[in-house]
UniProtKB/TrEMBL annotation:
<feature type="region of interest" description="Disordered">
    <location>
        <begin position="179"/>
        <end position="200"/>
    </location>
</feature>
<dbReference type="Pfam" id="PF13673">
    <property type="entry name" value="Acetyltransf_10"/>
</dbReference>
<dbReference type="GO" id="GO:0016747">
    <property type="term" value="F:acyltransferase activity, transferring groups other than amino-acyl groups"/>
</dbReference>
<keyword id="KW-0808">Transferase</keyword>
<protein>
    <submittedName>
        <fullName>GNAT family N-acetyltransferase</fullName>
    </submittedName>
</protein>
<dbReference type="InterPro" id="IPR000182">
    <property type="entry name" value="GNAT_dom"/>
</dbReference>
<dbReference type="InterPro" id="IPR052523">
    <property type="entry name" value="Trichothecene_AcTrans"/>
</dbReference>
<dbReference type="InterPro" id="IPR016181">
    <property type="entry name" value="Acyl_CoA_acyltransferase"/>
</dbReference>
<feature type="domain" description="N-acetyltransferase">
    <location>
        <begin position="5"/>
        <end position="196"/>
    </location>
</feature>
């Protein structure tokens, strides 16, 4: 029997470094990251900085969790300060690809539900060598057990149909409107989860 992964809060610079490395590996060949930066050599360097920026933002205003050393989730409250304060740093990190990031962020922002108040799963990833071992489910379950008693729903955008219909559907997420459309045929899948009553 495989032991359940230990999920804990990601605190401080060392954990932020670890989370950024996990997410960079997890999203190396993701449809969204390929759409944002088509060139593989540019992608890894830019996304490590990008993920590090938003992990630190999550540590400041939201919740960041680690599952062992191979899984990370970044949650933001829906009333968190607007991340546009990070725009200058994003421009520096993304260089010539910055307009694509700006376009992506605006499209996602325009489809983000205005209410009710909710927790937003901005990022969830596990290292490629650890996928399929329950780390993603453990990260979701950990946060849901914290939020369900408070009556707080959650929202996310899945980057693939596979994760939308697999990992997230098993965790209770359901489609929230039609897929989000981007230029060149990219789609993401908005999902919503209402809080669940305690098991009897």
């Amino acid at each position: 029997m495989v032991a359940s992964p230990v999920v804990r809060a990601a605190i401080g610079t060392d954990d932020a470094d670890r989370c950024a490395a996990i997410l960079t590996d997890a999203f190396a060949d993701d449809p969204v990251t390929i759409w944002l930066i088509p060139e593989p050599d540019d992608r890894a360097e830019a996304f490590y900085g990008y993920f590090h920026l938003f992990v630190r933002h999550g540590q400041d205003v939201g919740t960041v969790h680690l599952a062992g050393d191979h899984g990370c989730a970044v949650w933001l409250p829906s009333d968190a300060p607007d991340a546009t304060v990070l725009d200058d740093e994003l421009q520096r990190l993304c260089g010539r690809h910055a307009p694509r990031f700006t376009q992506f962020g605006q499209i996602v922002h325009d489809r983000h539900p205005a209410g009710p108040k909710h927790d937003y799963l901005m990022l969830l990833g596990t290292t490629t060598t650890s996928q399929g071992r329950g780390l993603g489910s453990a990260l979701l379950s950990h946060r849901q057990h914290q939020l369900d008693p408070t009556g707080m729903p959650t929202y996310l955008e899945a980057t693939t149909q596979r994760s939308a219909k697999g990992l997230y559907a098993r965790a209770g997420y359901r489609p929230h409107g039609h897929p989000i459309q981007f230029p060149d045929g990219l789609q993401t899948y908005p999902l919503w989860r209402d809080p669940q009553p305690p098991e009897k």
